[in-house]
Amino acid sequence: xxxxxxxxxxxxxxxxxxxxxxxxxxxxxxxxxxxxxxxxxxxxxxxxxxxxxxxxxxxxxxxxxxxxxxxxxxxxxxxxxxxxxxxxxxxxxxxxxxxxxxxxxxxxxxxxxxxxxxxxxxxxxxxxxxxxxxxxxxxxxxxxxxxxxxxxxxxxxxxxxxxxxxxxxxxxxxxxxxxxxxxxxxxxxxxxxxxxxxxxxxxxxxxxxxxxxxxxxxxxxxxxxxxxxxxxxxxxxxxxxxxxxxxxxxxxx
Length: 253
Description:
The chain has 253 residues and is of the alpha/beta class. Helices cover 42% and strands 24% of the residues. The protein has a domain at 3-141 and 170-195 and 240-251: Rossmann fold, CATH 3.40.50.150.
C-alpha cells in the first residue's frame, strides 16, 4: 500500500474523522506564536492538509485570517460544514494553489508526512512572506503510558506494519527527517490529554489510515477484540487518551 493510497483513504471516513479525532491544546498555539515571533491575531495563515478543519478552527479562534488547502473532496465537505465562513481551496503541499509571498504562516497539522519535502519545502518558502514561518505538528503516541504502548503494538501486529520504537528517530533527528535541514528550526513537545467514551476512542483509532486501507472484515475483527481488551482496563467505558504534540517551526530566510 503506497503512501498516496493511505493519504487518499481519509476521504472514505471523513465524517468519522471529524467526529472523533483529537484537537490540540492552547499551549501549542502559544509555542507557534513564540517561535514564529508574531501573534496569530491578524496573521494570514494557510492551513495545508486542513482535513475537516480541526486546526483551522483553532487558528481562527486565535484571530488568524485562515485559508485552508485540502486535496480530499469529502474532507473538504466536512470542513465546509464546520467552518462555512472559511475559504478552502483544493490542492496539496507539493503544489500550493496560493500566490507568492501571500502568507505570514503556513501550518501542517497531522499532514506533513503526506508531502515530498523536496517539493513542499520550496513551495512553502515561495508562498511565505519575508520573515514568515512554517509550522508542522503531530499528535504523537505517549509511549510511556503502558496501555497506549500495548495498543500500538497490537495495531502494528494486526495491520502488518513494524511497530515504532519507544525511542523514535524524531527524538534525535527531527529536523532532517522533516526535510527542514538548512532552515532555522525550533522544536517543542507539548503533552496533553482528553477523556472520551470508549466508542469515540475506537472511532478515533479506526480513522487512522492504517485501518482505512484494510478490508472490512479485518477492521471488524480488530475492534471486537480491542473493545474487550479496553473494557477490562476502563470498566467505566471512559478512556483517557494521552498525547505529545511534536511541533517544528521553521523560519523563512
